[in-house]
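Tokens as discussed.
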């Protein structure tokens, strides 16, 4: 076998094993065998620059070369969704669709709303050619080099994909990676990421793709765009995309009645806590593409879809004291000391107050009954004060300290 043939064989095998491991969760070889093949391929590619391939599995490893992001226009604008927190507005959405479709039957595709950072991927002839962030919806940053390190995003497709299309989805940092990353940052006294969404977005903008590779991002794809899509239903298109190698959530359901929509919402309101990634709601989409077209768009978002956001869990407890932590770099963080309270399965005793503005904005007084929320965050935060519980007797207003508690400097 020539070196060129060997390179091609290793690439094909590594693409397949990567897909088995990261998309199907069903590896056929050991990690060691995988790493050995990857190293062998890296060696051969170093010896043979003439066989370079932008979509080789070795692109997954990333590089230290600094990448600047070029702004590129979106072929189709990247819209957001109308948001609601109320079941009544979900009912309104359903009835609006029903009325606009003039009694015609319709299906609703129910999906999880992934809480990460959105991405648009362009594929040509089965190869990933571009990955662009949302940006302002019209133009975004080209982050292709970084995105290639995300193992669950296919670089080469298989099956009967159209020659040209875009697919959109969410880049996520799984809870496990997020917690490990923050532990590492804490040990180095670096500022922590507030939630996996910020961590994913920050990582994606890293100038160094080997940093991205090390942070273990994941991606779910949820929207296909193009002139030659395989089916006339959104759900059916996503199932086709899954066959081409994309990671599509298994928790998508097509339903017809409002009751089924609420069953889906109610199930995932608690079910989402078992998921490995952050979700902040569910998305409802009219399934049929012709009906989607008929319903059309407002200036900002489609009329054929809506996002229902889960209410963040919160608890009420007493603020006993505010203490100040001084980091190695001299940064001061105010910390609220609370009566212990159970929130989303853990006992909360402390909450970050971030900075002086937040303290002033909340008008906090020692002894106040305060609301703590965890939402997508791992570090609980104080989101409000129960003023009805504040007694007339004078309480001490919390003010950010004027001097460093360790060195006394202003
Ligand atoms: S569909 C035109 N589906 O939520 C519709 N979006 O404001 C395109 N998101 O920008 C979006 N999970 O970043 C869709 N299953 C899902 C989603 C989802 C998360 C994000 C996405 C979007 C935002 C809505």
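Sequence:
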């Amino acid at each position: 076998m020539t070196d060129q043939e060997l390179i091609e064989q290793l690439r094909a095998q590594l693409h397949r094993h990567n897909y088995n491991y990261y998309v199907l969760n069903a590896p056929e070889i050991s990690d060691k065998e995988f790493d050995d093949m990857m190293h062998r391929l890296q060696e051969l590619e170093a010896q043979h620059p003439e066989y370079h391939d932008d979509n080789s599995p070795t692109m997954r490893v990333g590089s230290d070369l600094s990448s600047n992001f070029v702004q590129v226009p979106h072929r189709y604008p990247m819209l957001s969704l109308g948001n609601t927190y109320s079941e009544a507005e979900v009912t309104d959405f359903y009835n609006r669709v029903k009325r606009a479709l003039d009694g015609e039957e319709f299906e609703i595709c129910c999906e999880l709303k992934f809480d990460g950072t959105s991405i648009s991927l362009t594929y040509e002839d089965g190869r990933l050619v571009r990955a662009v962030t949302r940006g302002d919806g019209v133009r975004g940053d080209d982050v292709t080099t970084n995105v290639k390190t995300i193992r669950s995003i296919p670089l080469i497709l298989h099956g009967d994909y159209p020659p040209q299309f875009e697919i959109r989805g969410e880049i996520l940092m799984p809870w496990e990676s997020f917690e490990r990353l923050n532990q590492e940052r804490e040990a180095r006294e670096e500022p922590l990421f507030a939630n996996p969404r910020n961590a994913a977005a920050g990582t994606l903008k890293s100038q160094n793709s080997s940093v991205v590779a090390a942070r273990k991002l994941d991606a779910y794809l949820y929207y296909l765009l193009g002139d030659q899509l395989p089916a006339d239903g959104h759900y059916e298109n996503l199932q086709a995309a899954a066959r081409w190698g994309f990671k599509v959530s298994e928790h998508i359901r097509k339903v017809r009645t409002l009751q089924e929509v609420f069953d889906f919402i109610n199930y995932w309101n608690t079910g989402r806590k078992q998921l490995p990634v952050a979700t902040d709601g569910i998305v409802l989409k009219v399934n049929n593409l012709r009906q989607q077209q008929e319903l059309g768009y407002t200036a900002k978002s489609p009329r054929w879809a809506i996002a229902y956001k889960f209410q963040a869990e919160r608890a009420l407890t007493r603020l006993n004291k505010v203490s100040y932590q001084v980091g190695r770099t001299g940064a001061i963080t105010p910390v609220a000391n609370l009566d212990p309270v159970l929130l989303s399965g853990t006992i909360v005793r402390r909450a970050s107050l971030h900075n002086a503005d937040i303290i002033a904005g909340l008008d906090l007084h020692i002894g106040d009954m305060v609301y703590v929320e965890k939402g997508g965050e791992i570090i609980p935060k104080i989101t409000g004060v129960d003023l009805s519980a504040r007694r007339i007797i004078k309480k001490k207003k919390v003010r950010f300290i004027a001097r460093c508690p360790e060195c006394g400097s202003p």
